[in-house]
Amino acid sequence: MRLARTTFGILGLILATPCAVAAILAQGGRFSPRLDLLTQLAPFYLAGAVLAAVIAAMGGRVLRRTGVVVALIAALAAGALIAPEFLRSTGPTASAGAPGQIKVIEINAWRQNPHPDRLVDWLQAEDPDMIVIPESSVLLREMILRRMHRAGVAGWSSSVMTFARKPYLRMDRPVIDRATRLTFVNATYDSQSGPYEVVATHYDWPTSRRQPIQSVGLAGVVARLPRERMILAGDFNSAPWSFRRRYEDRAFGLIRRDRALATWPTGHAGPWRWAAPFPFMPIDHLYAGPGWATVSVRRGPRVGSDHYPLVVILAPVAPR
After folding, report:
1. pTM score > 0.70 for this model?
2. pLDDT tens-place string over residues 237-280
3. Tens digits of per-residue pLDDT, 275-304?
4. Do 107 and 310 form a contact (C-beta atoms < 8 A)?
5. pLDDT in tens, 206-216
6. Do 259 and 86 contact (CB within 8 A), yes or no?
7. Which residue of 18, 22, 149, 170 sits 20 to 30 Å from the alpha carbon of 31, by its own alpha carbon?
8. CA triple 258-264-266, angle to 5 deg
């Protein structure tokens, strides 16, 4: 019995310690992009801390006390990273019957998607007003244009695309420094409630040194366009508990409508052919200006990509 308690105490401490260290170091993400990488896994630190506390509680008195204290520190540090996401406002809301609704679907379709027909079948069934695809392919573009008869526009790299029911009204594309490698596309579209701006983007992975530069570049793009009825969506490759995401939540002057909605992975990417048990990274996001109210936000099904779709329905804010 003593050996078992010692074993549980040691295991609890071994699990709690790295969770506490990582969660504490992640607080430095406020100042360091490298440390901000650690924030991406904050929920794992919290889950590990809870599990460590349970294991340590079965240990001997000294190890139990030490393990539980370290686990508590880890939980508090991780919770401090995650809590702001659940405390922030996601903007005005509207009922399911609100007039002037538009449905926006954002999906990183993955260039190597082996089932683009499955994706297009699902898009046809959903019949969205706007489709934002941060990572597309020529084949997928042609399938959407041919089967759904949508008007499409692409960014300078041609991988970021948007598809609407009707051609855009105008395209006032801000000039950016190509050194940022920021991939985006924007255009102004008409709706029954008036024109609105759409901006789509795809960031590099958070391990890339270019992501902070892309972030600043996109903030500049958004600032030069009308934001009251803007919709900004894409694959931002950063979780909502990262300090990069919090910075952009403030810098864009828009309201992020998704809340901790994991969209990655499905498991189907590269050499990995098995389905992931569940998505755990919320890295696809949709922002909208104060002129839009949120009707609903949900995650779509697996459609051959390594990302799940993000489905958002918006309605114009009723004039006061």
Report:
1. yes
2. 999 999 999 999 999 999 999 999 999 999 765 555 677 788 99
3. 778 899 999 999 999 999 999 999 999 998
4. yes
5. 999 889 999 99
6. yes
7. 18
8. 130
Q: Which domains does the chain have, with CATH numbers?
A: 2-87 (no CATH), 102-316 (3.60.10.10)
